[in-house]
Amino acid sequence: MCRSIQMLLTGLKIFMNDSTNNVQINSLNNEEVQGKGISTMAEMAAKGEAPEILFWVGCAGSFDERAQKITRDICKILQYVGINFAVLGTEESCTGDPAKRAGNEFLFQMQAISNIQILDGYKIKKIVTGCPHCFNTIKNEYPGLGGNYEVIHHSQLIQQLIDDGKLKAEGGESFKGKKITFHDPCYLGRGNGVYEAPRKALEILDAELVEMKRCKSNGLCCGAGGAQMFKEPEKGFKDVNIERIEEALSINPDIIAAGCPFCMTMLSDGIKNFEKENEVLVLDIAEITVRANGL
Amino acid sequence: MTDQIIFLLIILAAVFYFTVNVKKIIRNINLGLPLNRSDKPLQRFMVMLKVAFGQTKMVKRPIAAILHFFVYVGFVIINLEVLEIIIDGLFGTHRIFASPLGGLYNFLIGSFEILAALVLLGVIAFYARRNYLKLKRFSGVEMGKWPKADADYILIIETVLMIAFLTMNAADYRLQQIGSPHYINAGVFPISGFISPLLPSSESILIIIERSAWWFHIIGILAFLNYLPYSKHFHIILAFPNTYYSNLEPKGEFTDMASVTNEVKAMLDTAYTPQPVAEGNRFGAKDVTDLTWKSLMEAYTCTECGRCTSVCPANITGKLLSPRKIMMDTRDRMEEIGRNLDKHGKGFKDEKSLLHDYISKEEIWACTTCNACTEACPINIDPLNIIVELRRYSVMEESKASASLNNMFANIENNGAPWKYSPADRFNWAKD
Asked: Nearest-CA residue of chain B relative to A40?
């Protein structure tokens, strides 16, 4: 591990020396970008532009096939309402959340400090994340290390857009008569007290919203938090996601709404375990919004 | 006169013994690392008012909340009566507050009686929930012989105290009716009025009953006071400071380790001067002395209600982890260290530690850090913080993370993602 830290440090030092000159760094990344009209910060900075908001995609949103779909849908929403946004592209790196929850504070701080360098290098002020873990980490744990940004989760962005009348549920798929239940992500709900924003995106649908018994501040974890996503569970008689899916299935929903890529994985696996994938959909709030608006 | 001297001696002994034990608890709590929780006094006071006095977090379980409210209000208010009992005991008076308070006194005594009946109702229901209904929440690996007995003792003592209180009033009421000298007409007795007809009518026997109940009641209260430092029931005192010193940050935010920041920044910049940090001599916690004083105070505050464990996803699905056990182990270990200090003097160290000897690795790694436990705790205890500190020690000092976690760490270090993907592919999602 020491060697890797050294390597990371060398990289960081190079970066820090460069950080006074954004254009120079940007040129390194220019070739990789381009796709669906999504700009990277490097491109924007090269043109001397600044986005309204940075979309922090996160590792799951970048690499996990299922979560990539959600990432693209968040972009669709941003583009639809005409928000000028950018992503970091290949300059983005793990926030350090799983390392911190697993007790590796060194690795967390290495990641955090290098991310803060990049964010500050681009003078980022406002960030929307596609993941409650990234959201929590950047919002709450980066300020202590000198990184101060206004951070929102994509459900809060959707809520704001609905409140401002910029986003409705029109022109797309109808959810009329569909039974939808929302699974609260721990790091959005209990972790940061955000319970209403994701529900707002569901309330504008003509659907039947039902709550599981354990919801909001009493919500049951999907089982992925605290770095559990990256390890085998300890011995027990059941997996946490099975416990959660049993509860969800007991209210016979058509759709289980999620707001976190890790929850998405755990809930989808749970649904598959009961062979209900053809009857019950697990969809992110962003996906539901995109469907309802036919984006 | 002898009565008054005996009474005074009993009070002095009780207060002395209680003070000695409380000092030990304070000393044990101060074994913890420093932590600043004296900022924002107004906000802290409001949290205490809401959570401890107002019991707002109890209501998540309404039946327990109502029963607990009876016992809580009953004990707080009936203790006003104790003030009168102490003055009467010291000066040989009887119902000293009766004449200055007049009608208000009658109202107070009447309300105390009703409250005493509600306390009785509450504690009997609590006893039944534990011993006959056998609620799942009150069992578990950590609920061994002592914790179960402790809970029962508390409920039995409270029952006996309330019966003594009502018997005392019943005999007093009867003596007032008889017109016995010394027993002035004072108070209304809505509950003990039903008991008094059952008592014998002989004045001398009534006086014996009244005096015995009086002595039994006050000695019982003093004995109960001295039982508190040994018991989970200490929460009736610590719930208030514990909520005052609550964590005011969002639950998702974990503490930053200034000692690590120093090292990381020093590595990045050789000219960096490390900031002085008030942390222990190791990363994370191996023993209770590596935890902050707040975690240790929480261990003494925990009343083992098990709301945390009953909502813990790991515990619900059969894993070894129980947040309540984390708190109880912390307290047990702290008490052990305290006993060692008493026995062997300052600086004594045994070979044991909180991690491994009390809490196993299997327990700490089952946690999903979901904060259900901290949300559930009616007095803002934070078992998650202890779990994370133990993980930090295990990972950063012992290098004992599991192979899969080490893989995750290596991936973050090398690829900037917890999975083995090339950082160059990070933007590929936009290309499809």
From this structure: B427
Kindly state whether residue A163 falls inside one of the protein's structural domains.
Answer: no
**Structural domain range at position A262:** 168-293
Shortest CA distance from B362: residue in chain A: A234
A183 touches A244 (CB < 8 A): yes
Q: Give ipTM to 2 decimals.
A: 0.92
* CB pair distance less than 8 Å for A105 and B392: yes
The total number of structural domains in chain A stands at 2
Same domain, A137 and A29: yes
Sequence-distant (6+) residues with CB within 8 A of A140 are A192, B249, B250, B252, B253
Residues B317 and B272 in one domain: yes
Label residue A89 left, alpha or beta by phi (over 0 means left) and psi (-120 to 50 means alpha).
left
Alpha-carbon distance of A78 to A54, in angstroms, equals 11
Greatest distance between any 2 Cα atoms in chain A? 58
- Please check whether residues A219 and A258 belong to one and the same domain: yes
Are A178 and A85 within one domain?
Answer: no
Closest chain B C-alpha to A50 CA, distance in angstroms: 20
A103/B394 Cβ within 8 A: yes
Window 174-233 of A: residues touching B by CB (8 A cutoff) are: 186-187, 190-193, 214, 217-221, 223-233
CA–CA distance, A99 with A171 (Å, rounded to integer):
43
For residues B120 and B236, state if they share a domain: yes
Report yes or no on A212 lying in a domain.
yes
Say yes or no for a CB contact (<8 Å) between B365 and A186.
Answer: no
Distance CA B66, CA B64 (A): 6
Q: Is A100 on the interface with B (CB under 8 A)?
A: yes
Q: What is the mean pLDDT of each run of 10 residues along chain B (432 residues)?
A: 92 97 97 95 98 95 96 86 91 91 92 95 97 94 96 96 95 94 90 93 94 95 97 97 98 94 85 73 93 98 97 98 98 97 90 97 98 98 98 96 96 96 95 72
Residue B289 is part of a domain; what is its CATH number?
1.10.1060
| Interchain contact, A72 vs B429, CB within 8 Å | yes
> Do B194 and B272 lie in a common domain?
no
Tell me, yes or no, whether A248 and A273 share the same domain: yes
Neighbours of B152 (CB within 10 A): 14
